[in-house]
Amino acid sequence: MKNKEIIDSNTILENYRLYWNNRDTSECFLGISILLNDQEWTGKGELVFEIDKAPIIILSNESWQVNSLKIHGSYELELDLSNKDITKKVCISDDEIEKLEAYKLLCAVFNNTEHFNVYEDKDYEDVEDFYGWELS
């Protein structure tokens, strides 16, 4: 499978170590719910990725391309995944995914949604800027 990460994998790792290593996976899921405008976890928040912008995550030691992501329940996501000729849907909660993989999903959602900072009347610069404002 060709790696099609939205953000360079070195940048993801660097930012993960700087900002996210000591944070909970649930914070990434909360950020996704905010970006999908579904903080009540109603299941209406969904994002379908363009093929060339679909993130690659590791689940059960296998690489999977995330074709779409949907809020499924409280701190739970439904992922439509593919790996070569295999496709599957999985529901994962915030305690069933590694923090780095959850952070990759958050970055992918951030880069594929509108994210306007009403406090500064402009777009957030990056995921960390968005999160700093939304959780402070």
How is this structure best described in words?
32% of the residues lie in helices and 29% in strands. With 136 residues, it is an alpha+beta fold. It has one domain (9-135). The strands form 2 sheets. Strands 1, 2, 3, 4 and 5 form a 5-stranded antiparallel β-sheet that branches. It starts with 8 loop residues before the first helix and ends with a helix. Residues 1-6 have low confidence and may be disordered.
What is this entry, summarized?
The protein is 32% helix and 29% strand.
Features of this protein?
single chain; 136 residues; alpha+beta; 5-stranded antiparallel beta sheet; two-stranded antiparallel sheet; globular; disordered N terminus
3D shape = globular
> How does the helix and strand content classify structurally?
alpha+beta
What is the H/E string? HHEEEEEHEEH
Radius of gyration, in angstroms, nearest whole number: 14 Å
Estimate the helix proportion, in percent: 25-40%
